[in-house]
Design brief:
2 strands, disordered N terminus, single chain, two-stranded antiparallel ribbon, disordered C terminus, about 75% helix, 12 helices, globular
């Protein structure tokens, strides 16, 4: 790895691209983005509060859901200042250290979310395929250990390539492709030897995101086989309903990840707008949709929210 001799390079400033070609519309774009972030932050906080205050939700399924909501909340917090900072005209500049820190959290949280979704798939598999041993398998100690393992995997495995970003020589124009920092984007601007980072990142994607998605698929294949083999029509419907929210969350997470990966690796000829769109979908769509999905599809959470926000008298008029 070649290290830039000039110390200024390691503390250089990057320019966030924002939304190329739409600069004159930033005041209007800031409105929907502000609403999206408001839903991300308030929605995930609401899910966490419901799980914390409702004793009937103190069970493994909802502990994992709390982990998912916490991950999504942190994802929103890690990008809100740069995205809205660009749209509100506050600042388009970001220092290298701040950019590396944001990169670390975005990719670490993404890996964490994949791990949480895998743990939730195992929870559904155990509840449906081995219900008599559910409580003995998913004990409080094992749930805590699983959470610690997910956290450690998410942030420890990416430390090596992220730290190396600090010592690269960034000789190309310091203009990033998004309103936030991503590992692939910083590699594109580096003139140093980035082969380790490229290979490591690809291996990490295969060993985490790809492996997790395969294991989730295997879990649901076994769930489907078990349900079709022993359950009546009513039991099949009940079992499928408990998995719908999780399946939606899996699709909401993995489809943008795959899309962004394909755009970065094979879409160099595409319009910058496509890169910007996929980048924002990657960081905003899962945190936005997950609390909505679980509030609508999970009866216990939906019932608690209804008790907090009863229908107003206006809805009963007429």
């Amino acid at each position: 790895m070649s290290v830039g001799p000039d110390s200024k390079l390691s503390n250089s400033t990057f320019l966030l691209a924002g939304f190329p070609g739409l600069e004159q519309h930033y005041p209007w774009l800031s409105i929907p983005f502000s609403c999206i972030y408001a839903v991300v932050l308030s929605g995930n906080c609401l899910v966490l509060h419901v799980i914390r205050t409702e004793p009937s939700l103190h069970q493994p399924m909802f502990y994992f859901l709390a982990m998912l909501a916490g991950t999504d909340l942190c994802m929103g917090l890690s990008t809100v200042h740069t995205v809205l900072g660009v749209l509100w005209g506050l600042s388009r500049e970001v220092s290298l250290d701040a950019c590396i820190a944001q990169t670390y959290f975005i990719h670490g949280l993404s890996c964490m979310e994949s791990g949480v979704l895998l743990a939730m798939a195992f929870d559904r598999f155990t509840a449906i395929c081995n219900p008599l041993r559910y409580a003995s398998i998913l004990t409080s100690a094992r749930i805590i250990n699983t959470g610690v393992a997910i956290l450690g995997r998410g942030f420890l495995l990416i430390t090596a390539p992220i730290v190396r970003l600090k010592f690269f020589n960034y000789c190309r124009p310091h203009v990033l492709s998004h309103s936030f920092c991503l590992h692939q984007d910083l590699l594109r601007l580096a003139c140093s030897d980035v082969r380790f980072n490229s290979v490591y990142a690809l291996a990490l994607v295969i060993c985490t995101l790809l492996l997790d998605s395969v294991l989730i698929l295997v879990s649901y294949i076994r769930i489907l086989r078990s349900v079709l083999a022993v359950a009546s029509r009513e039991e099949r419907l009940k079992s499928s309903q408990t998995c719908v929210a999780h399946l939606c969350a899996v699709l909401v997470f993995y489809v943008p990840v795959i899309g962004l990966t394909m755009v970065h690796r094979f879409g160099q000829h595409l319009s910058p707008v496509v890169h910007v769109l996929m980048g924002n979908v990657y960081v905003l769509f899962p945190p936005l949709m997950n609390p909505i999905i679980y509030s609508v599809k999970t009866q216990q959470i939906r019932g608690r929210i209804r008790r907090w926000f009863p229908k107003t008298s206006l809805s009963t008029r007429g």
